[in-house]
Amino acid sequence: MTLQHFMNEAISPWMRQDGPDSDIVLSSRIRLARNFSDYVFPIVADAQELDDIRNYFQAYAHKSFQEYEDFEFISIRDLTAIEKRVLVEKHLISPLLVKNATSAAALISKNEQVSVMINEEDHLRVQLYYPGLQLTKALEKAFEFDDWLEENINYAFDETKGYLTSCPTNVGTGMRASVMMHLPALALTKQLNRMIPAINQLGLVVRGIYGEGSEALGNLFQISNQITLGKSEQDIIEDLQSVVQQLIEHERVARNRLMEQSRYTLEDRIFRSYGVLKHSRIMESKEAANRLSNVRLGIDLGLIENISRTILNELVVLTQPGFLQHYAQRTLTAEERDFMRASLIRERLALESNK
């Protein structure tokens, strides 16, 4: 397995699987922040200390843990700008890891379900994904993987405070649990804007597709916990699960209401987007994301047949700037990206229709 294994497919293997409520919930993620007890945190560490951490994890290359086979060690400083961008677009690494490129690295499992970011804000950040709403299962697997790593690592841990991290907002469990949701009906009916303040008051936050500071492209929203101290991991998961299930219910009600009260308008919106995607020659990224969201909604409502719902997951990544340039094997201007984005969407939809 090489870097190209992760670069050549827009959609990770685990994302092709359905999970509970996968018509609305694309994925569940658990991220654990951990640090070595005998090294200072990355934000103040010197180059030698960071290299020691990096070199330690290089020994995990090609190891396997349960169903997560053949971890690949990727040195961020050895990647091109386009390669870095593609890995960020696939959520395998974070934008912050790219900024720490000199000492940063990542361990990524063959099925891309587990990745370990090394020398990001903390010495290691483990993230594990599951399709659909599977927070409890994801947490169990993340704990097992964390225990496997801890067999040979002494974590920075305080009996009172919990896991110690570079940022005080992560102290305690060191855990961020998040769910990626497709909420087009709540966005279309303007209900989501009214719900977000109430969600924030519960210690949760609503962000865009790439987390903090990112835009909610294609009506994709990431719901995650803000509180890590004073609650157990199970309590955090239960709180998040409760809110997500309420959002699922509200989204389904909003979809049904749109079908009952504004069916012709909704169908026109969906099929107009489908037609534009099938025939456009130029497509900006925001327009592509919004029209793909409409098509995904049409698929979930049974209005568009013979197209997999995973097409949204795939094309949202495939049409991002990094992946377009990787596909072209060169740096593209904005105009060239818009042209190639439209071309790839047309080709992908044509392939799906011919199945």
Give a concise summary.
Helices cover 45% and strands 15% of the residues.
Rg for CA atoms: 21 Å
Instruction: Tally the beta strands.
Output: 10
Low-confidence stretches: none
Backbone structural class: alpha+beta
Strand order of the largest sheet: 2-3-4-5-1-8-10-9
Tell me the number of helical segments per DSSP (H or I, 4 or more residues long).
Answer: 13
Distance between the termini: 29 Å
Q: Mean pLDDT score, rounded?
A: 90
Global morphology: globular
Helix content: 40-55%
The topology string of helices and strands comes to HEHEHHEEEHEEEHHEEHHHHHH
Largest sheet: 8 strands, antiparallel
Q: Which range does the strand content fall in?
A: 5-15%
Provide an overview of this structure.
The chain has 355 residues and is an alpha+beta fold. It is built from 13 helices and ten strands. It has helices at 3-7, 47-58, 81-89, 95-99, 135-150, 184-188, 192-201, 233-261, 263-279, 285-300, 310-318, 321-328, 334-353, and strands spanning 25-34, 72-75, 105-108, 114-118, 124-131, 157-158, 162-163, 175-182, 204-207, 220-225. Strand 6 and strand 7 form a beta hairpin. The longest helix has 29 residues, at 233-261. The protein is globular, with a radius of gyration of 21 Å. 43% of the residues are buried.
